[in-house]
Each structure stands twice: as C-alpha cells, then as structure tokens.
C-alpha cells in the first residue's frame, strides 16, 4: 500500500508539528505547489506509531516524518512509499516482500515532474543492529569492550565502505527518474549517545560513545554520497542531543531495545519524527530562500 495525497493549503496550523492524514487533504485544482515523493525504510515509515501503520505490510504511519513534511510544505501532491525493512535495491530495482505480499520498487511511484524527494535508506543495507550488538552486555555495569575488539571495527569499516557506492547509485537513479526534483537524503543516528542505560541501551558508556561515532561515520558516508550524486544531506542529529534512547520517556525522540511508546524498538518516536520533519523542512526552506 502506498499513500497518495493531493492537498490544498490549510492555514492556521503550526508547520513544525502538523500532520495531514489522507482524509484531511483536498484536490488542489489549479493551485501550483510542491509535488513530493517520500522513499525509504522504517525511519520514514514509522512502524506502529498509529493505526495507519497496521494496514499493509510496510507498517507506514501517518505520524511518520513524510506526512508531516507534506503538511508543513503544503504539498499539492504527495506519494509515500517508504517501507519497513527496505534496502537500497528495494528503492531502485527489486520488489520487496512484506508480511502481506510484494511491493514494487519504490522508484516506480516517483513522478517524473516531482519537485521534492526524500530518501531514508542504508540502515538495513549496513545491518547496523547486528554490528552494534557486539557492544551489548548481559548484565548492568559490564563492559563488552567492543571498541577495542579486533573484529568489530574492521566489520564496521567494511560495511561502511560497501554502503557508499550503493547509496550513490540509488540517488543517481532517482535523479534520472525525476530530473528537476530536489533530492534530500535524510541521515541516521539519534538512538545512541555517549552513555549506556542497561537494559535499554545495554552498553558501557565508553562503548556507547564508540557506537555514536559509528553513526557519525555512517552519516559522513551518506553526506559524501549525496554530494557525489548532486543530492542534499539532512543531518537529523542536529538538535537531538539529550533525546536519545537513554533520556527520560517524556524527552525521548528515539526508542532503545525496550520501547516505552508505540514506536518500534530502536526507531524514532512520534516526537522524533516531528524533529526529523523539522530538519527536512528547515533544509528545504533555508536553501530555497
């Protein structure tokens, strides 16, 4: 299932926190505005955040950042095909198998006349959770010392080295499909900070800092790929300090291994999605201005 929306301008709602479900939008008529397509994995889909995520196999929520961006920018056309579990090839060329069936490559839904395309991808390609799990401890107060493990860093390096070309190729394919569109690659990170909190983030503080650095390196790879392909990179870690998975639940933008909200474990909360949307909108408006 994909979300397709045409929207008129709705006034009087705060842009940074606005969510437009499909039923709230109307036909634009002759109005001109942004035609927006959202692509990617669960970081865009927002699994389990609301009832919409229970429909179809992609677990795509209305509370995901693409819907908020569409409302904030008053998009006159909006297509959201982000799908939980997606890898780069599911964006460009390979159908993705979901619990309810198969969905076509996401790029098939990109309008050639799109003005804006966002992409969240790379986490499943890296298999980051498996890499990071080497830093986890079984008991509080323990230290796995993954930061000095002779195998962990080489595995991370190899995964990051393989990621860059895949993301560059994906962004290039998107640009060829919609040559006039601004393409924004939305970064990763935010779950971890320089602290552990067993059992939610079951690492020592030193290993937590090591994991945080791994995501910083991942974002540098993504930023380089965006620059190479003529896209723009959105760093969602800006302004997110103190809202990691070890923060109090009311301040948390990302869940850890034990989710205390509707969000899937190790994914953004609804507040995190609003933050990510704000970063996208700020990027669009800043560079457009």
UniProtKB/TrEMBL annotation:
The keyword Hydrolase applies. Its EC number is 3.1.-.-. InterPro entries: SEST-like (IPR037460), SGNH_hydro (IPR013830), SGNH_hydro_sf (IPR036514). Gene3D superfamilies: SGNH hydrolase. CDD domains: SEST_like (cd01823). GO terms for molecular function: hydrolase activity. Residues 1-26 form the signal peptide. Keywords: Hydrolase, Signal. SUPFAM superfamilies: SGNH hydrolase (SSF52266). It comes from the Bacteria. Residues 38-274 form the SGNH hydrolase-type esterase domain. This is SGNH/GDSL hydrolase family protein. It comes from Rhodococcus chondri.
């Amino acid at each position: 299932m994909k979300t397709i929306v045409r929207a008129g301008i709705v006034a009087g709602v705060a842009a940074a926190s606005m969510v437009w479900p499909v039923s709230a939008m109307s036909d634009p008529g002759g109005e001109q505005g942004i035609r927006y397509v959202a692509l990617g994995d669960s970081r865009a889909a927002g699994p389990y955040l609301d009832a919409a995520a229970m429909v179809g196999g992609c677990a795509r929520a209305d509370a995901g950042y693409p819907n908020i961006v569409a409302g904030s920018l008053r998009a006159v056309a909006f297509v959201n095909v982000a799908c939980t579990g997606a890898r780069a090839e599911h964006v460009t060329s390979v159908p993705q198998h979901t619990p309810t069936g198969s969905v076509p490559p996401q790029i098939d839904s990109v309008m050639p006349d799109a003005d804006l395309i966002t992409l969240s991808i790379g986490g499943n390609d890296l298999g980051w959770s498996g890499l990071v799990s080497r830093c986890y401890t079984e008991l509080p107060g323990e230290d796995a010392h993954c930061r000095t493990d002779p195998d962990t860093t080489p595995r991370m390096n190899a995964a990051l080295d393989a990621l860059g070309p895949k993301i560059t190729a994906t962004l290039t394919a998107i640009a060829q499909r919609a040559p006039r569109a601004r393409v924004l690659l939305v970064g990763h990170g935010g779950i971890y900070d320089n602290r552990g909190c067993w059992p939610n983030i079951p690492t020592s503080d030193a290993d937590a800092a090591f994991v945080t650095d791994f995501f910083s390196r991942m974002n540098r790879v993504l930023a380089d790929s965006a620059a190479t392909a003529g896209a723009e990179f959105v760093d969602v870690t800006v302004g997110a300090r103190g809202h990691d998975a070890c923060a109090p639940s009311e301040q948390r933008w990302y869940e850890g291994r034990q989710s205390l909200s509707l969000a899937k474990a190790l994914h953004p909360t609804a507040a995190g999605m609003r933050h990510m949307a704000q970063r996208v909108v700020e990027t669009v408006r800043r560079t457009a201005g």
